[in-house]
Amino acid sequence: LERRVVLMVSSKPHKKATNLEIALSSANIETQHLHTDKIFIIGGSQLYKSTEDIVDELWITKIDREFDGDTYYNKPDGFTLYESTDWLKGMCKKTGLVIPYRFTKWKRSV
Q1: What letters, b where the CB count within 10 A reaches 16 and e where it falls short, cover 63-88?
Q2: Tens-digit pLDDT profile for residues 29-73
Q3: Taking the model in full, what pTM does it have?
Q4: What is the CA radius of gyration of the chain?
């Protein structure tokens, strides 16, 4: 992805970074080289929970479908919606079902 810093953080020892502070430090250095100020955090629930106090913007894909699962993302308090697409439709490759979704962007308001 152009002008985006992508670092993997994992609790698995064979992954690139097992420490969030190290990963964010590396990301800050790389953003300077790319002349960007955006670091995208794409993770699991532990990573989202660990970074909810330091992020200033959220890009969330909302999916209009119920799924079985044990983890769901809850947007932290203090964010205001500033951009949203209309509902789009995509086909699930696994089930063939057409699933409505939309992209939303949120900024920290506090």
Answers
A1: eeeeeeeeeeeeebeebeeeeeeeee
A2: 777 777 777 778 887 888 888 888 889 999 999 999 988 888 888
A3: 0.75
A4: 16
SS3 for the chain is: CCCCECCCECCCCCCCECCHHHHHHHHHHHHHHHCCCCECCCCCHHHHHHHCCCCCEEEEEEECCCCCCCCCCCCCCCEEEEEECCCEEEECCCCCCEEEEEEEEEEECC
Q: Which of 83, 81, 86, 68 is nearest to 109 (CA)?
A: 81
pLDDT in tens, 100-109: 999 999 999 9
Answer for the pair 101, 62: CB distance below 8 angstroms, yes or no. Answer: yes
Cα 80 to Cα 36, 104, 106, 107: the distances in Å are: 23, 10, 5, 5
